[in-house]
Amino acid sequence: MTSERIGRRGISRAVPYILCAPAIVLVVFMTGALAVLFIESLRVEPGAVELSLVQYREVLSASHQIQLLTNSAWLALLATFISTVLGYPVAHWISEASPRTRVLLLGFLVLTFFSDYVLRMFGLILVFGRNGLANQILMELGIGRLRMMFNTNGVLIGLVASSLPYSILTISGVLGRIDKSQFAAARLLGAPAWRAFVSVTLPLSMPGVIGGAVIVFLLCLNSFVVPALLGGGFVQMAATAIYEQAINLFNLPFGAAMSFILLSAALILLAITNFVLDRFGRRFGIAPARRR
């Protein structure tokens, strides 16, 4: 009997380590891959043994590379703004819906993550292409045909369409946890609905807005499929430039250096976001203070 108890205790103690094993394996492989890529970014030229920061200097000193990174950041920022503006009302509607309707709508959003990404982009081409549904409606209204694909507009539409579910899910999760009695109390004190929303609901939902915006921005900044398919070869972003350098031009060190610059920018952005929410969250009522 005692041996059985000891065996069960041993198994129960080993369960957390067994469950963590896949995550540990993933972290090891990812860390190893990043280490190899970082070493490659330090090579003076492809296949060279000498290590240097020359690739980083070339990326940050070349005017066309700076312009490329700036355009990528601007497109990602614009797509983030549009996704947040469009996603907030939908997220608010989901949070106010009945439990059954909420589960149905959230399930529909989650299903979009399981659909093929490339097929979704081709679907956008069918809708917003030259002879797509959107242009047919515009022609019927007498507005005329607009070029909405295979240019910057197409890339922006694709970025918004692909990132909108992330924004909705993040914001709706925070809105669903807000105590509705605070909004009701503001209304009882005589505040109009819009004033109660601006004073109560909006500040309390800012962690979701900021978190969703950061996720969407990073996804858009590192997007490859959207500019490759919807840019028509005329719009280049950071990810497509990295692919061209590494695969087409066989300049892996340069592409690796660009990759680590993007990774560093993402880590800095995450650190700034965490600092803002942690330091100023309690002051503005948008996040709890850290426990000490």
TrEMBL record:
<dbReference type="GO" id="GO:0055085">
    <property type="term" value="P:transmembrane transport"/>
</dbReference>
<keyword id="KW-1003">Cell membrane</keyword>
<keyword id="KW-1133">Transmembrane helix</keyword>
<comment type="similarity">
    <text>Belongs to the binding-protein-dependent transport system permease family. CysTW subfamily.</text>
</comment>
<feature type="transmembrane region" description="Helical">
    <location>
        <begin position="148"/>
        <end position="175"/>
    </location>
</feature>
<keyword id="KW-0472">Membrane</keyword>
<dbReference type="InterPro" id="IPR000515">
    <property type="entry name" value="MetI-like"/>
</dbReference>
<dbReference type="InterPro" id="IPR035906">
    <property type="entry name" value="MetI-like_sf"/>
</dbReference>
<feature type="transmembrane region" description="Helical">
    <location>
        <begin position="103"/>
        <end position="128"/>
    </location>
</feature>
<keyword id="KW-0812">Transmembrane</keyword>
<protein>
    <submittedName>
        <fullName>Putative spermidine/putrescine transport system permease protein</fullName>
    </submittedName>
</protein>
<feature type="transmembrane region" description="Helical">
    <location>
        <begin position="73"/>
        <end position="91"/>
    </location>
</feature>
<dbReference type="Pfam" id="PF00528">
    <property type="entry name" value="BPD_transp_1"/>
</dbReference>
<keyword id="KW-0813">Transport</keyword>
<feature type="domain" description="ABC transmembrane type-1">
    <location>
        <begin position="69"/>
        <end position="273"/>
    </location>
</feature>
<feature type="transmembrane region" description="Helical">
    <location>
        <begin position="196"/>
        <end position="218"/>
    </location>
</feature>
<feature type="transmembrane region" description="Helical">
    <location>
        <begin position="255"/>
        <end position="277"/>
    </location>
</feature>
<dbReference type="GO" id="GO:0005886">
    <property type="term" value="C:plasma membrane"/>
</dbReference>
<feature type="transmembrane region" description="Helical">
    <location>
        <begin position="14"/>
        <end position="39"/>
    </location>
</feature>
